Model the fold of this input.
Amino acid sequence: MTNGRLEIDFAGIQFKNPFMLSSAPPSMNPRLVTRAARLGWGGTVLKTVTESPTVDPRTRLGALRKDGKLIGMNNIELLSRETVDTWINSYIPKMKSDSPEDFVLIASIMSSPEPEGWTALAEKFSVPGIKGIELNVSCPHGSPEKHMGAFIGQNADLVENVTRAAKKGTDLPLLVKLTPNVTDVVPIAQAAKKGGADGVSAINTVESLIGIDVETATPMPQAFPSKPGESLSTYGGFCGPAVRPIGLRIVSQIARGVPDLLISGIGGIEDWYSAAEYLMVGAGTLQVCTAAMWHGFGIIKDMTSGLEGFMSRKGYENLDSMVGVALPKLTTWEALDKLPPVVAKITDACTGCKKCVIACADGGYVAIQMRDGKAVVNAEKCDGCGLCYVVCDDRAVDFVYNG
Ligand SMILES: Cc1cc2nc3c(=O)[nH]c(=O)nc-3n(C[C@H](O)[C@H](O)[C@H](O)COP(=O)(O)O)c2cc1C
Done:
């Protein structure tokens, strides 16, 4: 599985490929972690551990579907159910001994805003086999009620303080896992850096209410009561392909705003293409949760071979040459050229489904008609908005300079 093109040095840690499991159920015990390790994952961030083990509601996962297809998930799960002692004395030694030597283990810890807890946990997890520590200041549900998780991650001063406190307890590289549930992520990332972080991981889940079962007027996911009766719910964390645009936005904002900070990209990574997107906006390593939960750890094979094949086709010799290559093309809205003479052109791939005709009539400029079973753009009426491109499932829309 090792492939030179996919190797990367990230905060002094050597990865054979950039793909890690993120801190979540797939990294909650030795059985899961060693299975992923043997299938070729580059590493994992372990399920977050705090001073007292979690007791979770049932159920705790909710789904967002479009036309029957899963596009997102939310969860109201908290942290590891195991004690710090179990992790240190049993889980981590077993994960290490049963995994290939080059598989990277990163611990994930969470504590209250008091610095002592972070120092103590960072010290405890600085054991043989652990290559780095991720600070979870970003869980959006449950934890903030206890002034933990995103309660800390939404406050730059607290982020700086707890990062500094964790740094006191360890010489290992530190990553601070950030929440997207902030107005501006850049000052938070700067605070992590000021506190001594080597990098940040982004994003944790997006605070959400995944849906309502309207037949029973029940918010989802439904947390069953201890004895049969009415289920309640609470706000959870949204993840999976639907959050990718938010993850890409946050990662690119950090990369542009704090250029020398390492970033581990997370949020809807499901294949080599989405991996390449995150690399191109500045992520040096990549973390996956939902795709591994939905499709299994075997997805690593297509992700590594697909990414390697893409890099080879495009002439990227190594990951470093690809990290951030899309960033110079991101600018402010004000700096964009306005109304260039660009219009849509429908290509031969058009199947005549009429979606663009309908969309352009009611959401655009009435610039597309059907002719001989195919859609045709009237260049004089087309405003170049791109709606036809958006609704076309056949990828039959190009843009051309008119005249
Ligand atoms: C059920 C579940 C549990 C999670 N638990 C944790 C956790 O303990 N610590 C943490 O930092 N992130 C946790 N996460 C967040 C993921 O690590 C990840 O940041 C998020 O799901 C976005 O990535 P994805 O779109 O690939 O799922 C959890 C996510 C899910 C779905």
Q: What stands out?
A: The mean pLDDT is 97. The first helix runs from residue 30 to 39. The chain has two domains: 4-329, 342-401.
